[in-house]
Each structure stands twice: as C-alpha cells, then as structure tokens.
From TrEMBL:
Region (Disordered) location: 47-70
Domain Intradiol ring-cleavage dioxygenases positions: 127-200
Compositionally biased tracts (Gly residues): 47-64
Molecular function terms from GO: ferric iron binding; oxidoreductase activity, acting on single donors with incorporation of molecular oxygen, incorporation of two atoms of oxygen
SUPFAM superfamilies reported for this sequence: Aromatic compound dioxygenase
Pfam family, one: Dioxygenase_C
Domain of life: Bacteria
Keywords: Dioxygenase, Oxidoreductase
Full protein name: 3,4-dioxygenase subunit beta
Amino acid sequence: MTSVPHPDHDRGLGFDLSTLLSRRRTLGLFLGAGAAAALSACTPGTTGTGGSTGPATGGTGGQAPGTAGPTPAVTRALADCGVEIPDETAGPFPGDGSNGPDVLEASGVVRRDITSSFGASSTVAGGVPLAFTLTLLDNSKGCRPLAGAAVYAWHCDRDGRYSLYDPGLENENFLRGVQEADGNGHVSFATMFPGAYNGRWPHIHFEVFGSLKHAAAAGRVLKVSQLALAEAACREVYATAGYETSRRNFPRTALAQDNVFGDDGGIHQLATMSGSAAKGYTASLNVTI
C-alpha cells in the first residue's frame, strides 16, 4: 500500500497564458456587483447537483472554451466561492520529479483518459469507470474561471497501488495525466475508481499549474490538494469483483480519521457524485484558488 504517482510532462505546447493569481480576495468583491459580473462571465460545463454532465471521453487536450450562459454548476460554484480549497500534501509518490520519477516530462502525459499507461507500456488499469471534473476558479478575481491553467492528476489503482512506485509497477504510468482548463475553468479526466488502502480515505491527488508550459517544467504551482470520494459510491464500488483488497481496507479509516481530510471532514474537498457501479460514476469538485 505504499505507492503514489507523480506525473511530470512537457508536451512542448508553445503557449503560456501566464495567469498571475493572488490567493486573497475580499468577500465584498463577490457579494456585490462583482458577483453578477463574474456570473455572466463564467460558464462551467457541469450541470445540476449530481456532478458532471457525463463520463469523460478519451483524447488529448482540453475542451473548447464555452460561450453559453451560466449553468447551474457555475452558479453554485460562485455561491460557494470565497473559501480556497485547502493545501494538502502531494504524498510520497507524486511522480513529478520531486522524489525520483518524473512523468511530467514524458511525451503523452497530456491526455484526458488516464486509464492506461503510455510510452513503453499500454497496460490498462481495471475497475469501475469514473469521470471527474474540476472547476478551477480564481478567488482574487471574483471567482472567474482559470482558463488555460493546467492540472496534473493521479491516484492509486483498485488495489491501492501507485504506478511508478509500487513493486511491479515501476515501469507503468497509468492513472496519471495532465489536462488544460477550458474557457470555463473545467478540467475533465476519464479514469477508474480508485481503491482504498490502510490509513487513507479514497482520494485523487492533483496539482494546479498556471499553464501547460508550467506543468511541463514542474514550476509555478498554484495549488496542491486532493479530492475525496463519496462514501456511498465507495461502498457500492468496493462490493464489486476486483475490489476485494479495497473492500477489506475501506472500513479501517473513517473520513474523520483520515490524516488529510480528518481536520474538517473534507468539507471543501468532498466531490459531488452520481452514477452506479454498473454504469460508472461521475464526480465534480469546485477548486477555488
């Protein structure tokens, strides 16, 4: 149960949107006329309270910037904005070059579907499908979407093991990838439902960079945090075949006892989820920076 991914990839994309972000903003900026202006400007692509609009599909690159009016998701995101998502540890196995492996420098790490390894291997991580979307918001600018920012996301497999680190997985890089935020600040990944290992509540790691260029260089990190998965979804998924190890481990660490989410119960990191183990799950989380 001791492995964690850390992808560091330079796709060689030659544009840098250089978004300089301040992590402080007065509440009045949001509550006053600035909120209305931000609402009209923001149009994230998730809808309703059930998470994203549907499972992410494969492919590279972000979605095209949206031009429609505010969706229920962006309205909700703005209403909740004002509290930055907590900074968290990247863990012992980030794969970003900070402690050994560096997947961010690998050609192919910029991708939406992260279920398989890329490069020298094409091993696919098995499990229940999961599509998750992060909505990146700039707290210093009335919660406007962070268009052009980049997210590196990684998580363990259904047995709680991390590519690049766990024994036998040193030459695999599945369940790691980078995506660029679209015009609505959305970053979406298609993956498999992570497993549970002793000492941790099921989660997904992510690092936010100012741009793809900054992600490739492993610099200008705006936020390091984690997404917590909903208990009901975990219980249903871990009851299915292939998740036997996670089914044993899950009851051993309650959310309130988790060494990352336990201080506040993951109130700002608990994903909104919908779906089923039979058809797959979607998850969404507002990431205010």
